Amino acid sequence: MSKYIELVEFDSPVNLKMFENENTLASFPHFHKEVEIIYVTKGCVNIVYQDEIIELLESEIIIFPSGTTHAFLSSPDSARYVYQFDLSRFDEHILGVSQAQLVDLFDTGQICSKYWPKELVIKTRALLDKLFETTYSETLAVNYFQIGYLMQLIGLFIEELPKEIGEKKIVTHPEVKYKEDLILLTQIFDYIETHFQEDITLETISELVGFSPYYFTRFFKKHIGQTFIQFLSDYRLDQAIYILSQERLPMIDVAEKSGFSSVKTFHHVFKKSQGISPLQYQKKLAKKYKLKNIS
Q: Which of 11, 94, 158, 266 has its CB 3.0 to 4.6 Å from that of 255, i.e. a possible disulfide?
């Protein structure tokens, strides 16, 4: 399945990002170097991981190891806590466990709470709840609490996270139809990734998977939660944001490289999404990077 890199921006010096996601729309397959934990607080969240569809139910947890590709399908009436953290935060000289060992912990561990011992599930939920509660705190000690709970969480996983057994896969959707649909979605995502700089019409993408434009529109909206045109626009926007963070280019080149038909369209879509123009966004990033280097 196609994928793109997500750049995680931390809100605090703890190298930890937490937020509640009530967005029931789908996301494009992506990966990042940070470990990510998903904790479902309401309903059922449909996840694509290692080319399988996982139904994560309320109170269930999944860990995405560093660098692994994952995506979310449309999950109406659901909510989840998201935790992203950088393993480099844990100083191996002080803690006695190397970063490589931590990476291996999640790479070889059983990442889905469906297969954890009951006690581990209870302890993990309690720590994740406490950790998320710190997002509402304005105390001077909030960073200390976050580091403390995060340290406890990693310590718990080092002690109790079971290893993945053999080739057994995470629970998949019982309906074969979902597997067939996933293959079609993969075709669509792959096509977007390789042709997003071109003019992709609804007729073109419908023909790719053998659907009429009408049926394709219904199929895509059902699984992704938004129209194909909006999804394509969001993907191009993500490409533009990545380009702006990596290169110093004229806006006309950024628009072209990210697949927008014109600078005017690019500027309009970007400002509507980010609240500022692409040029202002680029300057903001440059200033932030300069301040980081100074500090």
A: 266
- Token digits of residue 59: 């109170």
pLDDT tens-digit readout, 274-285: 999 999 998 888
Q: Which domains does the chain show, CATH number per domain?
A: 4-160 (2.60.120.280), 176-291 (1.10.10.60)
CA distance 192 to 183: 14
In degrees and rounded to multiples of 5, residue 116 shows phi and psi of -90, 155
What was the pLDDT predicted at 167? 52
291 vs 278, 280, 283, 286, CA distance in Å? 20, 17, 12, 9
For the segment 192-221, what is each residue's pLDDT rounded down to a tens digit? 989 999 999 999 999 999 999 999 999 998
Residue pLDDT, tens place only, 32-84: 888 999 999 999 999 988 778 899 999 999 999 988 889 888 888 899 999 99
